Amino acid sequence: MTFNGTWELNMKPLGVWCVCALLLCCWCSSSAARAVFPAPQNVTIQTLNMNYVLKWDWDPDQARDSAHSVTFTAQYLAMFKTKKPKNKQDWKSVCESTPEHVCDFSSVQLHYLGMWMLRVRAQSGKNVSSWVMKEFCPDRDAVIGPPSAVNITPVIGLLQVAISDPLTITNGSMKEWLPNMYYFIQYCKKSSSAQPNNLTSANNLVVLPELESWTWYCVRVQSRDDYYKKTSVFSPTYCTQTDGQTPSWQIVLYFLLSLALSFLVLVGLFMCTFRVVKVVKSTFFPSVPLPAPIQEYLCDSGSSDTPRLLSTEQELENCCDTLDLLTPDPEVTEVTEVILEVHLPPESSQQSGRTRSRHSSCDSGVYSTEGSGPRQSELGEMKMEKLGRKIRVEELDEGVQDVSV
């Protein structure tokens, strides 16, 4: 009894130990299976000012047996939180399940003076690798860049160098985080094998001393900070020429050239103006005048210089008439008004269809006129009256009539 009772009592602790051993084996086997999946290798951080990029290597042959593609997850956490187990859930993912082998932490804007812990792992389906940790302090580990811009200006035989600070991710100045940053300047003559001259300055505006006038110099600048021995790469090399006082012979030469150029310009303008005036004058005021008969019939009267247009057929016929002015009889001392009437035969009146009359006023004189239209064999009788007196009209050859008073 005692043996059997003792045996029964001893069997209960033995079963408990078996169950615990079985659970421990299962957990160890699962942990071993999880640890078998390889982790990323050669984890590094590439930095420039406040740009931080986490990179790692991965061999595709390490997960050849996996049926799923391999992805990666990268996280960060402040260093002081990693020492407390309850804060381990505060890890923040920047890149999650990405197939790339790089993750950019610049957008997170990690504090430049803080201490951070970065980590990355690989996963493929249910297979997950262990985390690869990386400690990072931007103030200590981040690399500073060269000046963002360098401008060189000649100033009275010297060179003035304007330097722009390196920029942060928000386009701010890196001097906000590195107040002791300064610049290392190298300059030398262009195409010269001599040792370059060196100059250090914390100012953004530097004047290079002891330079030769009218000489080409090349300049490059480097950013430096001595606290963590940070040194940037050199900026691109910029070359420019110094100036100086202009020699007197050059001043005289420039003055003579300017005078010659001004003279040529004035001559050219004068010639152009003369040609334009000549063309305008020859166009609107021709040198050969029109014949006197044409000018007489193109004007309204003998004293008018305004030309008139021939608009009717009758006026075109009148252009062919001839006018003769005869000397008046001395016996006639005063004529105030002369009325000239022309009576045509019936057949002539049918052709012309009109009767012309002309009125004129003058102190004294005799008028001669020739009818327009076709020549008539017989000219009608003309009667002229002036204050009750009749004037005789004599018929001339070719249809020209003399009127005498």
UniProtKB/TrEMBL annotation:
Q: Which Pfam families match?
A: Interfer-bind, Tissue_fac
Q: Which UniProt keyword terms apply here?
A: Membrane, Signal, Transmembrane, Transmembrane helix
List, for all copies, the residue spans of the domain called Fibronectin type-III.
Answer: 143-245
Q: What is this protein called?
A: Fibronectin type-III domain-containing protein
Q: Extract the ranges annotated as region (Disordered).
A: 344-382
Q: Name one GO molecular function term.
A: interferon receptor activity
Q: Which GO terms describe its cellular component?
A: plasma membrane
Bias (Polar residues) occurs at 362-375
Membrane spanning residue stretches:
251-277
InterPro entries hit by this protein: FN3_dom, FN3_sf, Ig-like_fold, Interferon/interleukin_rcp_dom, Type-II_Cytokine-TF_Rcpt
Annotated signal sequence is 1-32
